[in-house]
Amino acid sequence: YTEAWDADKKSIHVMPDTPEILLARANAANVSKKLYVQAWEEAKKKGYDMRADAIPIQSAKASRDIASDYKYKQAHEKQKGHYIGCPSAKEDPKLALAARAMALQNDRLYRKAYHDSKTQIHIPVDALSVQAAKECQTLVSDVDYRQYLHQWTCLPDQNDVIHARQAYDLQSDNVYKSDLEWLRGIGWLTEGSVDVVKAKKAQELLSERLYRTRPEQIKFTSITDSPDVVLAKTNAMQLSDV
């Protein structure tokens, strides 16, 4: 059955210049750590020449002077007492500082550059982030996740097929309940069943008539000369209006 498939597997050959292979090689080169730091490693091997008048040294010194608190306040200290007042509001340092702070706090001006630039972003379709997002969407997609198996064609006289049919027959609900089909339509009286007998016993236990005996049902003969009877007769004679 699988001889043709096994022979077909050995004859498959993928060309090395297919778009999928080229894309895989480009992605491997983009995510390669070795290629990413190759230029840096080669630059470190060449060494460096650090002179006092080099541009990075001069830039670092200028940045240090700008960041220095002494240099920052030097011009302000020299101008102290040289002027009284300002020709205009724009030349007043405090008013200029207040205007600058108000402009920074203005939300519309704060977001103006963002709103002007957010519509000018162009993302290439082959970017790594876009490709990763597409692969993630493919992984979480329910359509791609559910791949139904194809219909197998089996011979009806195979041993595994016969065994499967027997197992299905044993597990089938119709076959499991087939021995009860002859009971359908047969009448049945509930007299003598467990539930009926239990209900009768419970009724007898809860019956007030069987539990208590009424006084008028008890047969007795009163003694006429007992002390309580004689006392009752005497009291009746004394209380009689006659």
Automatic annotation (TrEMBL):
The keyword Repeat applies. The keyword Transport does not apply. GO terms for cellular component: Z disc. InterPro entries: NEBU/NEBL (IPR055297), Nebulin-like (IPR013998), Nebulin_repeat (IPR000900). GO terms for molecular function: actin filament binding. One of its GO terms (biological process) is cardiac muscle thin filament assembly. Keywords: Actin-binding, Repeat. SMART domains: NEBU. This is NEBU protein. It comes from Formicarius rufipectus. The gene is Neb_1.
